[in-house]
Design goal:
The chain contains 10 helices and 12 strands. With 314 residues, the chain is α/β, with parallel strands linked by helices. The chain folds into 2 domains: 107 residues, Rossmann fold (3-Layer(aba) Sandwich), CATH 3.40.50.720; 179 residues, Rossmann fold. The chain binds NADP nicotinamide-adenine-dinucleotide phosphate and glyoxylic acid (GLV). The site of NADP nicotinamide-adenine-dinucleotide phosphate has 31 residues, from α5.
Length: 314
C-alpha cells in the first residue's frame, strides 16, 4: 500500500450515502467509503458499516476486520445466516443517539402526562377545557432495559420528577432510579407503573414481551412507549388492550415490518402515535467519529468501543 493509500470500508444502509461521505471526509479523510453497486476490489475492504446488509454481502469481503452496526441494535445483523464468524461486531451508540432517544421518550411521556391530546382536541373546537394538574411525583414510569439508552432516559425522567423504576437482566445501581432485575421482578414493576417504556435489546427472551399478560399487569389507563424494536410488542394484544380502554395510549417508533404497512391499524388508531423509526437515528457527524475510531482500533488490535456479545444477542 502506498503512503497515500486510503483504508477502504463498506457502507451499506437504505439511505442516501452523501451525508456520510461528507462526515467521514471531515473527520477521517484517510478512510474511503465504498458502497454498492461499485465496491471496487473487495479485498481492499477492511471494515463494514452496515444496516440490514443483504445476506452474504459481508461474507464476500475476504479481508474484513470489523463489522460495525450502523445502529445500536444488532438484530438486523444476527438475522444474516452468512454473517462471517470470528469478526468482531460493534454497535453505534454515541452521544447524539443517547440525547435523541431521551428526547423522544421524554416527549412521549410528557405529552401523555400533560394531556396534550385533550388540549389539542379542545383547541380544535375552540374550547377552554382545563383538566386537574397531574401529580408527577405520584406517577411511576417503568423503564424496561437499562443499557446505553435506557439509563440516560431513566435519569432524565427522574430529573423531571417522576418516580422511575428501571428493570434489566442484571443488577444495576443508578442514582434516583429504583433498579430491579430478573424476570421474577417484572410483574411487580408493571403493577406500579402508569407509563412503561421499552428500551430492551431484542433477544429470544424479550421478543413479544409486551403481550396480553404484560399489558394486563399494568394498571388501567397506563401508557406504552416503544422505541426499541417492533418485535417486542404483540400488536394484536396491544390493539385489544387499547380498544378495551385498559391501555390509554401508545407511542410507537418501531414495528414488526418497516415501513409500517398502510393498512395496519396502528396508523389510524386514535390512541396511537406512530413515528417512522426516527427516535434515535444515527447522526453522521458524531457517528463517523466513533466508526473511524473503531476501524483504527480494530486494525491496531486495540479494545473496541461498544463491542457486541453475539452469543448473548446484544
Ligand atoms: P443495550 O445497551 O444493549 O441495553 C439493552 C438492555 O436490555 C440492557 O439493560 C439489558 O440488561 C436489557 N435486557 C436484555 N435482555 C433482557 C432480559 N431478558 N430481561 C431484562 N432485561 C434485559 O441497548 P440500547 O443501546 O440501550 O438500545 C435499547 C433498544 O433501543 C434496543 O432494542 C435498540 O435496538 C433500540 N434502538 C432503537 C432506536 C430507534 O431509532 N428506534 C435507536 C437506537 C436503539 P442488562 O443491562 O442487565 O444486560
Ligand atoms: C436503530 O434502530 C438503532 O438500532 O440504532
Amino acid at each position: 500500500m502506498s503512503q497515500d493509500a486510503k483504508l477502504a470500508f463498506l457502507y451499506h444502509s437504505g439511505d442516501d450515502p452523501e451525508p456520510w461521505i461528507r462526515a467521514f471526509r471531515a473527520c477521517a479523510p484517510e478512510l474511503e467509503m465504498r458502497y454498492l453497486p461499485d465496491l471496487g476490489d473487495a479485498s481492499d475492504i477492511v471494515a463494514a458499516l452496515v444496516w440490514r446488509p443483504p445476506p452474504g454481502l459481508l461474507a464476500s469481503l475476504p479481508n474484513l476486520k470489523l463489522i460495525h452496526s450502523k445502529g445500536a441494535g444488532i438484530d438486523h445483523l444476527s438475522s444474516d445466516p452468512d454473517l462471517p464468524a470470528g469478526i468482531p461486531v460493534v454497535r453505534l451508540v454515541d452521544r447524539s443517539a443517547r440525547l435523541l432517544m431521551t428526547q423522544y421518550v421524554v416527549h412521549a411521556a410528557l405529552s401523555h402526562h400533560r394531556h396534550m391530546d385533550h388540549y389539542g382536541a379542545a383547541q380544535a373546537e375552540g374550547q377552554w377545557r382545563q383538566l386537574p394538574p397531574p401529580d408527577t411525583e405520584k406517577t411511576t414510569v417503568a423503564v424496561l432495559g437499562l443499557g446505553a439508552l435506557g439509563q440516560d432516559t431513566a435519569r432524565m425522567l427522574s430529573a423531571l420528577g417522576f418516580r422511575v423504576i428501571g428493570w434489566s437482566r442484571r443488577p444495576k445501581d443508578i442514582a434516583d432510579v429504583e433498579c430491579v432485575h430478573g424476570a421474577g421482578a417484572l410483574p411487580s414493576v408493571l403493577g406500579q407503573s402508569q407509563i412503561v417504556v421499552c428500551l430492551l435489546a431484542l433477544t429470544d427472551e424479550t421478543r413479544g414481551i409486551i403481550d396480553a399478560r404484560t399489558l394486563a399487569a399494568l394498571p388501567r389507563g397506563a401508557y406504552v412507549i416503544n422505541p426499541a424494536r417492533g418485535a417486542h410488542v404483540v400488536d394484536e394484544d396491544l390493539l385489544a388492550a387499547l380498544d378495551s380502554g385498559h391501555i390509554a395510549g401508545a407511542a410507537l417508533d418501531v414495528f414488526h415490518d418497516e415501513p409500517l404497512a398502510s393498512e395496519h391499524r396502528f396508523w389510524s388508531h386514535p390512541k396511537v402515535v406512530v413515528t417512522p423509526h426516527i427516535s434515535a437515528d444515527a447522526l453522521p457527524r458524531t457517528a463517523a467519529e466513533q466508526v473511524a475510531d473503531n476501524i483504527h482500533r480494530a486494525l491496531a488490535g486495540q479494545p473496541l468501543i461498544n463491542p457486541v456479545d453475539m452469543a448473548r444477542g446484544y
